[in-house]
Amino acid sequence: MRSAVVVGAGIGGLAAAGALARSGWKVTLLERDDRLRPGRAALVLWPNGVRALRALGLAGGLEGISTPVPAAGIRRPDGTWLVQPGAVDLTGEIGSPPVVVHREDLHDAFIAALGEQVDVRGGIAVQSARVRRDRPAVGDGRVTFEADLVVAADGPDSAVRRRLAAASTFASGGFAAWRAVIPWYRAPEIPAGTELHGEVLGNGQRFAYASLGERGSAGGSTRGGMYWVATVPGALRPEPPTGQLALLRRWFAGWPAPIAQLLAATEADDLVQEPVGEVTPLPETFGVVAGAGGFALVGDAAHAMPHHLAQGASLALEDVATLQTVLAELAVPAALGEYSRIRKPRILRVLQQSRKAAAVLQVRGRLAASLARVHPRTLERAAAAATEWGGPTG
Ligand SMILES: Cc1cc2nc3c(=O)[nH]c(=O)nc-3n(C[C@H](O)[C@H](O)[C@H](O)COP(=O)(O)OP(=O)(O)OC[C@H]3O[C@@H](n4cnc5c(N)ncnc54)[C@H](O)[C@@H]3O)c2cc1C
User: Fold this and answer.
1) What are 179-227's pLDDT values in tens digits?
2) Can you tell me which atom of ligand 1 is nearest the CA of 156?
């Protein structure tokens, strides 16, 4: 039986561990935290991500926990339209819209799909990656784990990537970002005539919001509420969460409804501040041969990029779908070469779109006023272009 060690139990790691176990591999999943915790808040899965989930046999887990996101358009801070609702088709080749899902619900679905075959070890912060007895091995300074394949899914600051591709580092993208979900029981009333999904863009700042299910849907098996994500130029804020919340309320004061209502209903504990950045340069290869086996870099460990297109999780799922497909056909070293050959050009294409989106978001001051009509549409077109994925083999 072939064996794999998966490092990191985020979206990429959980999907990889489950996919390999279902394909007959003996899998050990290592996570730095003591227990498997979901990421907080929510995320959008684009049609390519849903398609990758389908390829992995996990799309069924989305039923009942995801809410379609309509093409809600983009407004200016004064409430006028930059892009009218429905002006850009976001449904991708498979004709379904993006969906928004609570990360805890997605986490539960992935855990359920792990099955009994995965040996989960919490409290293991991997520090080393090397070849041992002709196989790849990782360790935390106390225990070493070796296998035919090591999947590095340990996020943007990947310790495994640092060992394999030391020149590639996670660099700030010049933004700070916050996400929150306000559960329905304390979500604000949304003023009549205001959409439950939307986006407002101006002067380098961006505020997007979406509803997770319908008001009152909490209490079932899923976590409902109002989700929002705010992006602001600058570095991460050092203030405690109450101070960050006060800043957000000030920065977005006067922006159209329901932004003030959402920020007023947000509690400091709801806030998740996250760095926005990019792994640069991209590792030369996402598959490193080590003896008779090797290492695969997936998700943010391989190619973290700013969240402007909300593609990070979808790309991690694409990575895993490709990895699973090539490993079904080839021995590990050959599969890793094929994996990288397929994934590198795809990631470079999305990165290019992500940079276009960043250029739109960075437009500030007088320039913003003159370019505003052109650029936001570029943002939506970039998002739509990023959803075009040729499937696990290309
Ligand atoms: C503000 C914001 C909004 C976003 N919105 C979206 C969105 O709407 N849609 C979308 O698709 N993407 C979105 N993203 C990106 C998305 O969250 C990430 O791309 C995705 O979570 C990456 O998953 P991952 O499994 O690769 O890494 P992670 O989620 O970072 O998981 C890494 C795991 O590895 C563990 N770990 C780390 N180091 C070690 C170690 N040394 N040893 C063992 N374990 C370790 C961590 O504890 C963690 O569990 C957003 C990002 C931001 C910042």
Assistant:
1) 999 999 999 988 888 888 999 998 889 999 999 988 766 545 568 899 9
2) 30
What would the DSSP string read from start to end of 304-351? ---GGG--HHHHHHHHHHHHHHHHHHS-HHHHHHHHHHHHHHHHHHHH
CA of 153 to the centre of ligand 1 (A): 9
Rounded Cα distance between 47 and 90, Å, is: 9
Q: Which residue CA neighbors atom 4 of ligand 1 most closely? A: 307
CATH code 3.30.70.560 for 3-71+100-172+277-364+382-386: no
Other Cβ atoms within 10 Å of 297 Cβ, number: 32
Q: Which protein residue's CA is at the shortest distance from atom 6 of ligand 1?
A: 310
pLDDT of residue 219: 47
Q: Domain ranges in the chain? A: 3-71+100-172+277-364+382-386
- What is the predicted pLDDT for the residue at 363? 65
Residue having the nearest C-alpha atom to atom 12 of ligand 1: 312
Q: Which stretches of the chain drop beneath a pLDDT of 70? A: 87-95, 216-222, 363-376
CA nearest ligand 1 atom 3, residue = 307
Q: What is the pLDDT of residue 220?
A: 53
Q: How far is CA 331 from CA 209, 293, 323, 326, 327, in A?
A: 45, 8, 12, 9, 7
Do 107 and 36 contact (CB within 8 A), yes or no?
yes
Of the residues 5, 6, 7, 11, which should be mutated to test ligand 1's pocket, given the most ligand atoms within 8 Å of the CB?
11
- Evaluate: CB of 31 within 6 angstroms of ligand 1: yes
Q: What pLDDT score does 97 carry?
A: 84
Which of helix, strand or coil describes residue 4? strand
Determine the residue type at 24.
G
User: What's the pLDDT at 95?
Assistant: 63
User: pLDDT by residue (tens digit) across 37-59?
Assistant: 888 899 999 999 999 999 999 88
Residue 9 Cβ < 6 Å to ligand 1: yes
